[in-house]
Amino acid sequence: MQAAIDAQLRLTTGARKITFRYQLLNQNDIRIGELDGMTRANISYGEFRPIKRSATFALNEYQQRNINYLSDRIQPWLVLHMPNGGIVEWPLGIFLLESPAREVSDGIAVRNIGAYDKTIVVEQDKFIHGFFIEKGTNYVTAVTRILNTSGITKINIAETSHVLPSGREYGLGTKKHLAINELLREANFSTLWFDEQGVARSDPYIPPSQREVTHVYDTRKDSIITPSFVERLDIADRPNVFIRVAVNLESDEELTSVFINDNILSPISTVNRGRQIPDYATIDSIASQEMLDQFTRRIAIESTSAFEHLSFGSALMPTHGNANTLLCIFPEIFNTPLKFHETSWEMPLVHDGVMKHEARRVVQI
Fold first, then answer.
1. Cβ(69)–Cβ(63) under 8 Å?
2. Residues 306-318: tens digit of each pLDDT
3. CA 178 centroid distance within chain
4. How far is CA 359 from CA 34, 306, 308, 337, 362, in A?
5. Which residues 6+ apart lie within 8 Å of 260 measured at CB?
6. pTM of the predicted model as reported, rounded to 2 decimal places
7. What digits encode the pLDDT tens for the residues 104-126?
8. Are strands 241-247 and 278-283 parallel, antiparallel or unpaired?
9. What count of other Cβ atoms lies within 10 Å of the Cβ of residue 57?
10. CA distance linking residue 89 with residue 76, whole number of Å
11. Positive or negative CA dihedral for 73, 78, 82, 85?
C-alpha cells in the first residue's frame, strides 16, 4: 500500500488528483465542522523562526459567519485520490487565528486570516508570578510543567536523564517560550516545535550530517522537481576558538569548555590563519562538564562551517515536517548524490501548486 501511495504522490503514472479540506476546531482541538468557502491558503515552515509553522487563509465571509477568531483553530488536510477510488489524507498543522482583515470586492467579502501553529501560545504567554524549578528536576519534566501552565497537554518530548544542577527561578513577565527553549538547549535538545497534529515536540540534537534521510529527490526518473535550481556557497569570517563558561548560581563552581579549531585542512583554523579569533559566551547553568563540552562542540561545528545552500521547487509533498533531511540526486549540478538539511518550505494549497524548498549542507572550511 505504501508503495502505491508513494507512486501516486510522485506522479509515476503521469498525473495525480489532490484536493484540500479544512477542519474548524475549538480551543481544545475538537472538530466543530468543515470549512467551506476557502478561496486561498498557504502554509510555510522555517526551522529558525520562533514560530516554525505559519499559514494564511482567505475565506468567503458569507459562507462562514460562525468562526470565533479568538479561540477557534483551522487544520488543513491534503487529500490524495488513489486510482482505486480511495483516498489518503495528511494533516498540515493546527493553526490559531489572528483577527482577520476584511476585504470586499464585487460585493463579495473575504476574510484574510494570518495564522500560527501552537507555539504562539507560549510565545505570547508570560509568567504572571515567579516560577521556581527545584534543583534535581528532570529537564523534560521542567519543560512539561511550563507547557502545562499554558494549557498545552499534548506533548511528545523525548526522555532524558539529565537534571537541573541548581534551582532555577523565572521572574514575573518572563516569556514562557524563552524559558522552555533555554531548558531544552541546556539539555542539548532541539528548540520547541509543534507537529501536524498540534503536539509539542523536541528531541536530542543530532548534527545534520548524522541524521537519517527522510526524503529523496531525484531528477533522473519520475521527477517531481521543477526545472530550475539555485545553489550557492556561504563563506564568511568565522571564529576558530570557542569558549563557554557555565556558572552554578548555588555554589562557587564554574565549568569551562574550550574548543580550538586547529585542523590543518581548515582554512580558518588557528594553524592556517596564524592567530586565534575567540568566540566567548557565558551560560547561566548546565548540568555537567560533559553536557557543556557537547554544547560547546555543537556551537563550534555550526560556527566553523560554511553552508552550501540549495533552493528548488517540487510538486506538493505533504510529508514534510520539522528538520527533514533530503537526499538530492541532481546530476545537473552535483557529481554525486548529496544530503541536505531542509531549513524551510512553503506550500500554496492548490492542486497544481509548486512547493518551495530551502536546504543547506555543511561544507568544512
1. no
2. 778 899 999 999 9
3. 16
4. 34, 13, 8, 14, 10
5. 240, 241, 242, 270, 276
6. 0.80
7. 766 678 889 999 999 999 999 99
8. parallel
9. 24
10. 10
11. positive
Counted residue by residue, the chain has a size of 365
Average pLDDT over all residues of the chain: 89
Distance (Å, whole) CA 41 – CA 55: 7
Q: 186: how many CB neighbours lie within 10 A of its CB?
A: 23
Beta bridge partners of 175: 126
pLDDT digits (tens, 9 = 90+) for 258-274: 999 888 877 778 888 78
Query: For the chain, what is the HEC assignment?
Result: CHHHHHHHHCCCCCCCEEEEEEEEECCCCCEEEECCCEEEEEEEEECCCCCCEEEEEEEEHHHCCCCCCCCCEEEEEEEEECCCCCEEEEECCCEEECCCEEEEECCEEEEEEEEECCHHHHHHCECCCCEEECCCCEHHHHHHHHHHHCCCCCEEECCCCCECCCCEEECCCCEHHHHHHHHHHHCCECCCEECCCCCEEECECCCHHHCCCCEEEECCCCCCEEEEEEEEEECCCCCCEEEEEEECCCCCCEEEEEEECCCCCCCCCHHHHCCCCEEEEEECCCCCHHHHHHHHHHHHHHHCEEEEEEEEEEECCCCCCCCCEEEEECCCCCCCCEEEEEEEEEEECCCCCEEEEEEEEEEEC
CA angle (257 as vertex; 252, 263 as ends), nearest 5? 165
2-15: string of b/e by CB count within 10 Å (b at 16+)? eeeeeebbbeeeee
102, 109 in Cβ contact below 8 A? yes
**Cell 563563506 appears where?**
235
Cell of 295: 554544547
Q: Position of cell 528531541?
A: 203
Q: Which residues share a beta bridge with 45?
A: 53, 345
Number of Cβ within a 10 Å radius of residue 128: 9
